[in-house]
Design brief:
211 residues; alpha+beta; wza like fold; Outer membrane lipoprotein wza fold like; 2 domains; three-stranded antiparallel sheet; 4 helices; 23% strand
Length: 211
């Protein structure tokens, strides 16, 4: 009786494993889409508004519709006159012109100024550092940011990092490209020629060294 029970358990476990294996083969998630930045070189950079930014919107002679607004996760804000205004991905100047067009329905010749208080920006504009960095994270891009600036913000490399085999991933003309970056030469040897310009949306992958 005990042998029959044990055999039944084994068969049941085998069927369960087979079932789960079959299910897993049909539940593959699609790869994430990397959204390219609008900045293709360091001289064309313009700050784009993103979720979490705090915007000060001033409407001249209309304080009742002016104020401070937090950009929602869906990239929109709500004002006293308009519930949903798409703001993410626009420059402050572009947004000001868009709001003027919207408010023209309610006000005569509105003049709008938009300033940003808390800078977050869209994910597509952030620089991401993963792997063997001391503090891997996403960094808000700043104009003329270089590889050295990024490595300072992430605290340098771990003791296990293979910095000279690090890879920079960048989307150019809609295509993903990879470049080798020599972080060890830059940080340990002081080789300034290894410093390179960063662009919004860059991803740096730092592998572990094989000892």
């Amino acid at each position: 009786m005990d042998n029959r029970f044990a055999s039944t358990i084994k068969v049941g476990l085998l069927l369960l494993v087979t079932f789960l294996s079959g299910c897993s083969s049909h539940n593959t998630l699609p790869s994430a889409t990397l959204h390219p930045s609008n900045t293709e070189n360091i001289n064309s950079y313009k700050y784009l508004i993103g979720s979490g930014d705090v915007l000060n919107i001033f409407v001249w002679r209309n304080p009742e519709v002016s104020g401070s607004f937090v950009v929602r996760p869906d990239g929109m804000i709500t004002t006293s006159l308009v519930e949903d205004i798409k703001v993410s991905g626009k420059t402050p100047t572009e947004l000001a012109r868009s709001i003027e067009e919207i408010l023209a329905t309610y006000l005569r010749d509105p003049i709008v100024t938009v300033t940003v208080e808390n800078f977050v920006g869209p994910f597509s504009e952030q620089v991401r550092v993963i792997g063997e960095a001391a503090q891997p994270r996403a960094i808000n891009y700043t104009q003329h940011m270089t590889l050295l600036d990024v490595m300072i913000q992430v605290g340098g490399l771990t003791e296990f990092a293979d910095g000279n085999n690090a890879v920079l991933i960048r989307i150019e003309s809609g295509k993903q490209k990879q470049y080798q970056v020599m972080i060890d030469q830059l940080l340990k040897d002081g080789e300034i020629s290894a410093n390179v310009d960063m662009l919004p949306g860059d991803i740096i992958i730092i592998p572990e060294a094989w000892f």
